């Protein structure tokens, strides 16, 4: 099996935790052996509920109890690992964090212990196993734009042609710079390395119209309330707003593809149970439940797309994008996250 980038023989699950809420799911103990436990640091919310209702039940039958902590915070993870006594085992992470912190925050993955059937080798790294596919998309208020809606990132960054408030997550990683460059005409295959100056020149065009958000819940509320007319959106949060009555449209021109990964924390106290959890999360039952409940794509190729049109309306793919899908360069982000974050923060506060 050929794996992308710096792949090794050990598995790492990375997570992110700040404020911590812990909940235990499943029954410890089984007829086959002693009880085990595993601590999963993840993002919480609807996705964690899917995990609980599907993957954790399979583990319970094997005598493994899953405890969750969320939201996951990298600063807390770092302190745990540096202190030599991590309490987390599996961490829900970005692929570039798994690449950049492989061997320091995360264990290398032993892929002989992972069922990789159906996974894309290009998404597998030494310390990160793919768990979910998604895209950054442009979402807009249909009531605002009527018969003349935006159709591209260029429209998002053109407040003269399309007046209205814009929403962007206030993190460098959330595609503000990439979409600004795409809007300015940079070809998709020439996007990296990011041209910061050109990106911020385009972002300057919407500075007086943009609102920044720090959480997915804020993103949903802004779309639902009508505070925002257009959003550089996470599809899951846009779908949540639509379920609550927001009249939203989605633009599928040049959606930016991303995926999330599972990692194993460096020095994880329950490594065996961590591998069992990862396999359960990658399993067909859990992957199918993700696409049936939420507007994301499975990483297991045996799983189809959602049959619910309300969900599918927010799911990008090659067909909807008419061949314009842009794939994020995670190796570039692994090397440049700190500098990109510094540049982004300087612009936002400038």
TrEMBL record:
Record key words, sorted = Periplasm, Signal, Transport
A Pfam family annotated for this chain is SBP_bac_8
Say where the protein is mainly found. periplasm
- Signal sequence interval, chain numbering: 1-28
List locations, semicolon-separated.
Answer: Periplasm
Q: Nuclease as a keyword?
A: no
Q: What is this protein called?
A: Spermidine/putrescine transport system substrate-binding protein
Species lineage: Bacteria, Bacillati, Actinomycetota, Actinomycetes, Pseudonocardiales
């Amino acid at each position: 099996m050929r794996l992308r980038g710096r792949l090794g023989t050990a598995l790492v699950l990375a997570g992110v935790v700040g404020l911590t809420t812990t909940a235990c799911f499943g029954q410890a103990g089984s007829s086959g052996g002693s009880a085990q436990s595993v601590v999963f640091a993840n993002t919480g919310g609807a996705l964690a509920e899917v995990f609980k209702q599907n993957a954790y039940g399979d583990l319970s039958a094997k005598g493994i109890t899953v405890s969750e902590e969320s939201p996951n915070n990298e600063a807390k993870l770092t302190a745990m690992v540096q202190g030599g006594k991590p309490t987390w085992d599996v961490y829900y992470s970005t692929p570039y964090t798994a690449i950049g912190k492989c061997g320091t925050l995360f264990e290398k993955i032993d892929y002989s212990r992972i069922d990789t059937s159906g996974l894309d080798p290009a998404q597998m790294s030494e310390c990160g196993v793919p768990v979910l596919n998604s895209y950054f998309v442009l979402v807009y208020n249909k009531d605002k734009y009527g018969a003349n809606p935006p159709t591209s990132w260029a429209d998002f960054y053109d407040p003269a042609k399309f007046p209205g408030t814009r929403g962007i997550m206030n993190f460098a990683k959330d595609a503000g710079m990439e979409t600004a460059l795409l809007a300015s005409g940079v070809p998709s295959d020439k996007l990296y390395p990011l041209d910061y100056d050109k990106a911020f020149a385009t972002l300057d065009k919407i500075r007086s119209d943009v609102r920044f958000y720090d959480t997915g819940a804020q993103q949903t509320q802004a779309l639902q309330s009508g505070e925002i007319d257009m959003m550089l959106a996470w599809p899951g949060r846009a779908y949540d707003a639509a379920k609550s009555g927001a009249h939203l449209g989605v633009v599928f021109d040049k959606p930016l593809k991303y995926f999330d990964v599972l990692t194993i924390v460096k020095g994880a106290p329950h490594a065996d149970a961590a591998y069992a959890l990862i396999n359960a999360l990658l399993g067909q039952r859990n992957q199918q439940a993700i696409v049936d409940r939420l507007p994301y794509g499975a990483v297991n190729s045996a799983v189809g797309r959602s049959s619910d049109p309300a969900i599918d309306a927010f799911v990008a793919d090659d067909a909807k994008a008419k061949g314009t899908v842009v794939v994020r360069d995670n190796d570039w982000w692994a090397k440049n996250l700190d500098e990109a974050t510094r540049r982004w923060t300087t612009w936002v506060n400038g």
